[in-house]
Write a structure and sequence with these properties.
The protein has a single domain, classed as Orthogonal Bundle (ABC transporter involved in vitamin B12 uptake, BtuC), CATH 1.10.3470. It has 343 residues and is mostly helical. Helix 1 runs antiparallel to helix 11 and helix 5 packs antiparallel against helix 11. The protein is built from 15 helices and 4 strands. The relative contact order is 0.19.
Length: 343
C-alpha cells in the first residue's frame, strides 16, 4: 500500500506539469484552432524567467570589508548583493531565498507579452492555413526560441533551488498511520501539485463565471455568431493566447526547482503534452486535465522496479501505448467533441 501511495504522489507530480501545459495547448486550439508546437518553448521560457529573476536578485558589487582580514591582515574584498543596500541584509537574503515563488510576479507579464507578440506577429497569419502548416511554423519557432535560450544561458542545466523552508521532505506515511519514513516525499513537489490545482481551478472559474470567459466559450462553440453580435472575438482570443502562454510559463517557473532548467526541457515536455491533449480530446479543457493526471499516474506506476523487471522499458512507452488504445476505441479521445480535427 505504501508503494502504491508513493507512486500516486509521483503521478500527481508529473500529471500536474502535463495538465498545466496541456491546458494551455487546449486553450489555444479551442479558441484559435491553432496547433501550437511552440507551447513547450513557453514552458521552457517560464523556467528561465525563474533563473533570470534569481540572477537579478543576486547581482552584486565588490566592497572592502574592514571587519574581515585575509591571511596577510589586509581588509578583504567581498561581493554584496545590491538588494542588501535597498532592503537590508536580512530582508534581502529572505527575498533571494524565495526567488522562485517571487519570480511569478516577473514571469506573468513577460509571458503574456511573449504570447501577444507570438499571436499578433506570426500565428495570426496561419489561422486559415492547414494544420500541417501551423505545426511546421510553430515547431520552427520552438527551435528558434530553444537556440536563443541556449545562446544566452548555455547548454548546461542551471540549478534553481526552492526556498529553504521547502528543501526537506514530508513524512506522508506517518500522517496516514504508516511507520515513520515509509512514504517520504519532497515538500516542493507537494507545493507544485497544490499550485497546479489552484491554476487549473482559476482558469476554469475564469471561463465559467466571468462575462469574458462566457463570451470566449461561446466563441469557441460558434465564432461567426458571436462576431455578428458586435463582439470583437478576435481580440478576446488574442488575450486568451496570452493567458495560455502565462499558464505554460507559470508551470515552468514552479517546475524549475524540480528539474533544473535547460534549453531542451520544452521539447522534452512538448510531445508528451500533445499526447495528453489528444488522449483527453482535442479542444476539451476537462479532457486535457483528466488525461494529464491519468497519464502521469500510469507513467509513475510503470516506473516501479517490479514492473520494469517484468516488462523492461515499459515506463518509456506506456503513455504512447495508452494513447494508441484510447484512440483505437475512442477516436475523439476521452472527452473530445464531434467534428474537432475530423475535417
Amino acid at each position: 500500500m505504501d508503494a502504491i501511495l508513493l507512486q500516486i504522489l509521483n503521478g500527481l507530480d508529473k500529471g500536474s506539469a502535463y495538465a498545466l501545459i496541456a491546458l494551455g495547448l487546449t486553450l489555444i486550439f479551442g479558441t484559435l484552432g491553432v496547433v501550437n508546437f511552440a507551447h513547450g518553448a513557453l514552458f521552457m521560457i517560464g523556467a528561465f524567467c525563474a533563473v533570470t529573476f534569481s540572477k537579478l536578485l543576486t547581482l552584486s558589487h565588490t566592497i572592502i570589508d574592514d571587519t574581515r582580514k585575509d591571511f596577510l591582515g589586509n581588509p578583504m574584498k567581498v561581493d554584496v548583493p545590491y538588494i542588501h543596500e535597498f532592503v537590508g541584509q536580512t530582508t534581502g537574503d529572505a527575498i533571494i531565498d524565495w526567488a522562485v515563488p517571487l519570480s511569478i510576479l516577473f514571469a506573468v507579464p513577460v509571458m503574456i507579452a511573449i504570447g501577444f507578440i507570438m499571436e499578433r506577429g506570426l500565428i495570426k497569419h496561419f489561422y486559415k492555413r492547414p494544420h500541417a502548416d501551423q505545426i511546421l511554423v510553430t515547431f520552427g519557432l520552438a527551435i528558434v526560441l530553444q537556440e536563443v535560450i541556449k545562446f544566452f544561458y548555455g547548454a548546461n542545466p542551471i540549478p534553481t533551488p526552492a526556498p529553504a523552508v521547502f528543501a526537506g521532505s514530508f513524512d506522508f506515511g506517518a500522517m496516514l498511520g504508516f511507520d515513520p519514513n515509509t512514504i517520504i516525499y519532497p515538500y516542493w513537489r507537494l507545493v507544485y501539485f497544490g499550485f497546479a490545482a489552484v491554476i487549473i481551478g482559476a482558469v476554469f472559474a475564469f471561463l465559467q463565471f466571468t462575462t469574458f470567459g462566457m463570451v470566449v466559450r461561446a466563441g469557441m462553440a460558434d465564432r461567426e455568431t458571436v462576431g455578428l453580435l458586435g463582439i470583437n472575438i478576435d481580440k478576446r482570443f488574442t488575450i486568451m493566447f496570452g493567458i495560455a502562454a502565462a499558464v505554460a510559463g507559470l508551470a515552468g517557473v514552479m517546475y524549475a526547482p524540480i528539474n533544473s532548467p535547460n534549453y531542451h526541457m520544452g521539447m522534452d515536455f512538448l510531445v508528451l503534452s500533445f499526447v495528453v491533449v489528444v488522449v483527453g480530446g482535442m479542444g476539451s479543457l476537462p479532457g486535457a486535465v483528466l488525461a494529464g493526471f491519468l497519464l502521469g499516474i500510469l507513467e509513475s506506476f510503470a516506473s516501479m522496479s517490479a514492473i520494469l523487471e517484468l516488462i523492461p522499458g515499459i515506463n518509456q512507452i506506456i503513455i504512447y501505448l495508452v494513447a494508441i488504445i484510447i484512440l483505437l476505441t475512442r477516436p475523439r479521445g476521452l472527452m473530445g467533441r464531434k467534428g474537432v480535427m475530423e475535417e
